[in-house]
Amino acid sequence: MPEEFQSSDSPDSPPPAGKSFSELGLCPVLCETANNLGFTTPTPIQAEAIPYALQGRDVIGLAQTGSGKTAAFALPIIQALLESPQPFFAAVLAPTRELAIQIAESFEKLGASIELKTCIIVGGVEMMAQAIALAKKPHIIIATPGRLVDHIENTRGFSLKKLRFFVLDEADRLLNMDFGLDIDKILKVIPQKRQTFLFSATMTSKVAKLQRASLVDPVRVEVATKYSTVSTLHQHYLFLPAKYKETFLVYLLNDISATSTIIFTSTCHTTQRLALMLRNLGFSAIPLHGQLPQPKRLGALSQFKGGARSILLATDVASRGLDIPSVDMVINYDIPTHSKDYIHRVGRTARAGRSGKSITMVTQYDIELYQRIEVLLGKKLDEFPIDKHSAMSLHERVSEAIRLAVNTLKEQDLAKKERKLDSRPKRGGPSRKKLSAPRDDADIGE
C-alpha cells in the first residue's frame, strides 16, 4: 500500500465503528435527523469514514455506487458547522450538474434542523443569478469545477480564503472529464489548512496523483474491490438477434413487474426513439441525455423520482452519482464500450441494501464487449429465461410503434430546420411559410 495511505485496519486505527450513528460520534441533533430520514444504521462507508472525519483527518473513500457516501462526508461537515458556524464553510466538487443538485438536496435534508444554506454553482444557469446567491453567504457550495473557477476569477467579492472543508466527489470521473486544470486552479486559492475528503469508485493513477496534491496524511477507507457490484444485485444477460432488439425490450418490460426501470442506451437518438416507441405502446417513459436543455434534464429526473414516469431512458450522463432511490431494474439496451461503465450503470439499482435486477441485452454483434464485462466482474452471468414465442408475438405491434416514432423524429427534425431558417435575417421578398411544430411526445417537460 502506498505510504500516503493509512489503511482503516492499521494498528493505530480507532476501534471498529459502532452500529449506530451515535456510536460513530455524531451529535444527538444529527442522529435524530438521520433517524427521521430513515437512516437507522450506518452503511459500511459511513461507518468507516465518519469517525476519521470527526477526528479531523483527510479521508479517501473508495466505495461502490449507491453506498451512502454523500452522507459519509456531509454529516461530519454539518457537525463541524454546528460547532463553528461561518459562511463558505465547505465546497463540494461534482462532475455533473445533476450530481451537484443531488448532493445539495442531501445537505439540505441532513441540515434542515439547523437551517443549513447551500448554493449550487453549475453551468447552464446565469452567472449573475449565481453571484447573487453567493452574496447571501451560504454555508455549503456545491459546484462543477469549471463554473466555480468562473466565479473565483470574475465575481467581485467572492472568495474561498476561509474555506474549512473541501470535497472531491466522483474524483475518477472528475478527472476523466478533463477537469484537472480547473481543480488545480481551485486548489491554489483555497486554504492549505483545511480538511479534504476525496471519494471515488476506483483508484486510478490520475486519482492517486490528485490525492497527493490535495490531501495531507489521508486515511484510506475502502468497502469495495476495484470493480465490484453489491451482493443484492441479480445480474443477467439476454442473447437475442439484433433485428428483434426492440421487441425483446418490450417483452421484458411487460414480463417483469418493476415499479421503476432505467434503460441505458449508447446515443441520444436511440434514447429519444425508444422513449417515443414505448409511449406509443402505452408505457410511461421519459428520456434523459446530454443534448437536452438543463431544465428538461432536471424535469426528467424529477418526474422519474416522483413516480410520474416509471421508465427512464438514459445515456451515460445519468449512469453515475445520481441519487435515484428504489430503482427496481436496470436494462442495458446497448452494451457500454468501456466495461467500467457497466459497473456504474447497474449501480443505479440494489442501492443501500435493497435488492435489484439488471439485464444486459447481447446481440450477435456485442459478444466481445459482453465478454469483457464478464472478465472485469470475474464471473459469468446467468442467462435471463424468456418465452421467445411470446416475445415474438409482440413484433408486429412493436414494429408499428417504431415506425411512428421514427416519423415523429423526422417531423421534429424538419420543424427545427424550418425554425432555424426562419430565424435568419430576411433580405426582402415573401416570408417563408412556417411549419407548425408537431407535438413532442418525448418532451420531458410534459
From TrEMBL:
Residues 50-221 form the Helicase ATP-binding domain. Residues 414-425, 437-446 have a biased composition (Basic and acidic residues). Keywords: ATP-binding, Helicase, Hydrolase, Nucleotide-binding, Nucleus, RNA-binding. Residues 19-47 form the DEAD-box RNA helicase Q domain. Its main location: nucleus. One of its GO terms (molecular function) is RNA binding. GO terms for cellular component: cytosol; nucleus. A motif (Q motif) lies at residues 19-47. Residues 414-446 are annotated as: Disordered. SUPFAM superfamilies: P-loop containing nucleoside triphosphate hydrolases. InterPro entries: DDX47/Rrp3_DEADc, DEAD/DEAH_box_helicase_dom, DEAD_box_RNA_helicase, Helicase_ATP-bd, Helicase_C-like, P-loop_NTPase, RNA-helicase_DEAD-box_CS, RNA_helicase_DEAD_Q_motif. The keyword Nucleotide-binding applies. SMART domains: DEXDc, HELICc. Signal peptide: none annotated. It comes from the Eukaryota. Residues 251-392 form the Helicase C-terminal domain. The keyword Nucleus applies. Residues 426-436 have a biased composition (Basic residues). It is found in: Nucleus. Belongs to the DEAD box helicase family. DDX47/RRP3 subfamily. This is DEAD-domain-containing protein. It comes from Mitosporidium daphniae.
